[in-house]
Write a structure and sequence with these properties.
Layout (H helix, E strand, L loop, with lengths): L4 H10 L3 H11 L16 H8 L4 H13 L3 H14 L23 H12 L6 E2 L4 E3 L3 E4 L7 E5 L15 H9 L3 E2 L9 E4 L11
Antiparallel strand pairs: 1-2, 3-4, 4-6, 5-6
């Protein structure tokens, strides 16, 4: 059966069979809360990616239901938690303590803070450090340089390869941030770090 590109892209993004996404699109088309999602099946790649950076709620609903159709209810809930954290929903605006998820000197960086909240919403463990010693292992987020203000760099937690599911493995970090609307570089940069750009900078990630 041939599916539209919008269905195929979403299936690739969340890692489920395209049949589950197609069924989810059909399901939500009959509900008043996500009826707009039916129009997204016919988008081009570029249109769909722009959509994920703007009106993402219907797409999240379809992704959540597709995960449930795939028999992955934990990952379905994870997608909702990631979305809420990316939108800074009050219930998910976790207070990040200094030295958790990043070095103390980067604690107040807004993009670092948001990335930490999103990754924690995906149940990924953050590093805990006093700035000189690692008190507990975990992922570490660092800001980009002044020339690239929208970027952050993520060092995955040491145990990431042992996890499965949507946020499992080293690539799980990319999957989580991409679903949250961030742009990502799909190959590691220096020292094996992942690079991600905040949604506000996706249209101009490399300002001159």
């Amino acid at each position: 059966m041939t599916h539209t590109r919008g269905v195929e892209i979403l299936a690739e993004h969340i890692g489920v069979d395209v049949q589950h996404v197609a069924r989810a699109f059909h399901y939500v088309s009959r509900t008043h809360t996500a009826i707009r999602a039916t129009h997204y099946r016919h988008l081009t790649d570029d249109q769909f990616r722009r959509l994920i950076g703007t009106d993402r709620f219907p797409v999240v609903i379809v992704a959540n239901i597709a995960m449930r159709f795939a028999g992955r209810p934990e990952d379905a809930q994870l997608l909702m938690d990631i979305f809420k954290a990316s939108e800074d929903a009050t219930a998910h605006r976790l207070h990040v303590r200094r030295g958790v998820g990043t070095l103390p000197e980067y604690h107040d960086h807004p993009h670092v803070q948001q990335a930490i909240r999103i990754l924690q919403a995906a149940d990924l463990p953050p590093i805990v450090t006093d700035g000189t010693r690692e008190l507990r292992p975990g992922f570490q987020v660092m800001p980009g340089c002044d020339d690239f203000p929208g970027w952050v760099f993520i060092n995955p937690d040491p145990a990431c390869q042992e996890r499965t599911g949507f946020a499992g493995g080293r690539l799980g970090y990319l999957a989580v941030l991409r679903f949250a609307g961030w742009g990502v570089i799909t190959e590691p940069v220096a020292d094996g770090l992942w690079a991600a750009v905040h949604p506000n900078y996706r249209s101009n990630p490399f300002p001159s």
